[in-house]
DNA sequence: AATGCATGCGGCC
DNA sequence: TGGCCGCCCTGCAT
């Protein structure tokens, strides 16, 4: 097509702004070659002839000028570039630091990245000595150890289910008594039950929820029963053996009436003493359901800003009537369930942005760690101390884009000193040429990064992580796959199943129970002990190397 | 390989 | 207050 033809069309005039070392334009042929060669061609407006902008079909837009400058993808300005150079991401210097959000530097030179104690901001004042504190210390202080144990970090993938779910994993939960059973929920509403000790033993229930499973908890009375809260607005109660499920609460009995009325359930926890399931919705309300009668108790209570999502609920492990909530209104709040009503919170813990999670410490229940979208973990060393400001803020990359499950820092339930948390990292790091997203173990008493765990085969971001309540095991939900990590020397996998990777087919709707090695019904299965069949090519690349890695 | 899409949240008007 | 626009490291399907 001749250039003249293009200029007579109604499209904005296209001008090639050749910004090579020489200021002069080259011939049109050369320009076209350069257009093909250039990777980054920016389109920007510049002031042009008035008759162009008067053209009604241009709708007042100035003609488009195609610049051949190397242009920043982030701020669209010339002179620098942002984006991946190999496996290293170069920040745009015009934007605040992607890690700590402060202007004046980039992630690479961020003081929080360089600091030995990875990004700790000390509290402006520390005052943790009121009367309650001393009473607490005398009564409960012994439940946590002041001596930090030797950290055993599960840092080797020992088995995995690739593409187990049909959508990304959103929540994980360990079985309360059976050490090898892992529950997983996904964005589509499916609930998976996986015996990772036997690797092939897996079931996916697809009819419990119709969209995101946000939280799951085992029944304290019966460990074959699990409760789940979902964005479909229901709490389910499922028998894991049969998959038979009943709905304890349905906030959308009239079905879909548009996005303004559709209620979704996010935060959920159990209050054992009250035999209650507590859930909170996307409009700021808390609900309580009695699990003996399966009926709602009382009215919904507004616990966060009206219309804002409550994403997390946690009952204190020592005093279950103490409830911790967090939400999109930038607050975490502590409540007393014995006298809870709107605006009656005991404390409000302010954050700069959305709070993804807030948890009491697992043993003494006296510490709090929160994860906020401002890329900071906040630590309160004692709920009996001064809660006006956190004891520590730890800068850590976990602000997510809209398509990821929110990151949550989770305690190590086995750590007697209550100082170790695990959380996935959003920002990628260059590991010998591969851009990987590690899973971080952080000592919240110092802010120190204790370990960063990676596997070259996990190239996706891993926002969902959980540490085993009794064993040195980490499980990770990364995209649609699940990974089990153990410490390097651990031999606790059944020998015949060691290092097995199960790959589920993408068309899997419901897991077949006992996938032995010849069972291909819901996807190919592979292990390090047998040769790979010539299965699906796209999967092959990733699990081949996993197999190589786990073969020891 | 390139493209499109799903759809949360902050900021701006 | 509400609607609309835009988004820096997605993941997956086509």
Description:
With 552 residues, the chain is mainly β. The chain has a domain of 336 residues: YVTN repeat-like/Quinoprotein amine dehydrogenase (Methylamine Dehydrogenase, Chain H), CATH 2.130.10.10. Helices cover 9% and strands 33% of the residues. It contains six helices and 39 strands. It has a six-stranded mixed beta sheet with strand order 35-36-37-7-38-39, with helices on one face. Strands 6-28-27-26-25 form a five-stranded antiparallel beta sheet, with no helix packed on it. A hairpin with a 4-residue loop joins strand 18 and strand 19. The longest helix is centred in the last third of the chain and has 14 residues. It is globular. 43% of the residues are buried. It binds a DNA duplex (13 and 14 nucleotides) through loops. Belongs to the WD repeat DDB2/WDR76 family. One of its GO terms (biological process) is response to UV. It is found in: Nucleus. This is UV-damaged DNA-binding protein 2. It comes from Cannabis sativa (Hemp).
Mean pLDDT: 76
Helix content: under 10%
Oligomeric nature of the chains = single chain
Separation of the first and last Cα atoms: 61 Å
Query: What value does the Rg take, in angstroms?
Result: 27 Å
What are the segments in which pLDDT stays under 50 over at least 5 consecutive residues?
1-68, 123-129, 505-552
Shape: globular
CATH domain topology of the domain at 151-486: Methylamine Dehydrogenase, Chain H
Family: Belongs to the WD repeat DDB2/WDR76 family.
Organism: Cannabis sativa
Biased composition (Basic residues): 528-539
WD repeats: 162-195, 348-381
């Amino acid at each position: 097509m001749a250039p003249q033809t293009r200029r007579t069309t109604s499209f904005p005039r296209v001008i090639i702004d050749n910004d090579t070392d020489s200021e002069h334009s080259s011939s049109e042929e050369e320009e076209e070659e350069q257009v093909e060669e250039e990777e980054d061609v920016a389109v920007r407006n510049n002031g042009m002839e008035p008759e162009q902008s008067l053209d009604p079909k241009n709708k007042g837009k100035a003609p488009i000028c195609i610049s051949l400058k190397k242009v920043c993808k982030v701020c669209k300005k010339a002179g620098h570039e942002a984006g991946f150079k190999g496996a290293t991401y170069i920040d745009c210097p015009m934007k605040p630091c992607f890690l700590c959000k402060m202007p004046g530097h980039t992630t690479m030179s961020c003081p929080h990245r360089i600091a030995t104690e990875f990004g700790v901001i000390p509290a402006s004042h520390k005052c943790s000595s009121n009367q309650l504190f001393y009473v607490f210390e005398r009564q409960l202080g012994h439940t946590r150890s002041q001596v930090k144990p030797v950290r055993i970090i599960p840092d080797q993938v020992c088995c995995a289910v690739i593409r187990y779910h049909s959508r990304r994993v959103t929540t994980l939960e360990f079985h309360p008594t059976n050490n090898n059973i892992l529950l997983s929920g996904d964005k589509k509403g499916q609930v998976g039950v996986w015996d990772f000790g036997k690797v092939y033993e897996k079931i996916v229930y697809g009819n419990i929820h119709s969209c995101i499973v946000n939280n799951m908890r085992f029944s304290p009375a019966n460990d074959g029963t699990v409760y789940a809260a979902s964005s479909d607005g229901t709490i389910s109660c499922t028998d894991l053996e049969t998959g038979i499920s009943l709905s304890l609460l349905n906030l959308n009995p009239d079905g879909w009436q548009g996005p303004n009325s559709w209620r979704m359930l996010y935060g959920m926890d159990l209050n054992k003493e009250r035999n209650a399931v507590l859930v909170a919705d996307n409009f700021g309300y808390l609900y309580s359901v009695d699990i003996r009668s399966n009926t709602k108790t009382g009215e919904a209570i507004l616990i966060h800003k009206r219309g804002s999502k409550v994403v997390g609920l946690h009952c204190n492990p020592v005093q279950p009537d103490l409830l911790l909530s967090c939400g999109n209104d930038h607050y975490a709040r502590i409540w007393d369930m014995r006298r809870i009503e709107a605006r009656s919170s005991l404390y409000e813990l302010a954050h700069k942005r959305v709070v993804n999670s807030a948890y009491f410490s697992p043993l003494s229940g006296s510490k709090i760690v929160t994860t906020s979208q401002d890329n900071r973990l906040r630590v309160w060393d004692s709920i009996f101390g001064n809660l006006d400001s956190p004891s520590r803020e730890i800068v850590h990359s976990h602000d997510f884009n809209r398509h990821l499950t929110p990151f949550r820092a989770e305690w190590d339930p086995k750590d007697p000193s209550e100082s170790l948390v695990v959380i996935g990292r959003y920002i990628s790091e260059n590991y010998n040429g591969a851009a990987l997203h590690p899973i971080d173990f952080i000592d919240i008493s110092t802010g120190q990064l204790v370990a960063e765990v990676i596997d070259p085969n996990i190239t996706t971001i891993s926002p969902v992580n959980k540490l085993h309540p009794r064993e040195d095991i980490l499980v990770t939900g990364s995209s649609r796959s699940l990974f089990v990590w153990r410490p390097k020397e651990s031999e606790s996998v059944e020998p015949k199943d060691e290092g097995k990777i199960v790959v589920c087919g993408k068309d899997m709707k419901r897991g077949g129970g006992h996938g032995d090695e010849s069972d291909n019904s819901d996807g190919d299965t592979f292990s390090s002990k047998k040769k790979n069949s010539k299965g699906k090519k796209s999967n092959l690349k990733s699990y081949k190397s996993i197999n190589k890695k786990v073969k020891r």
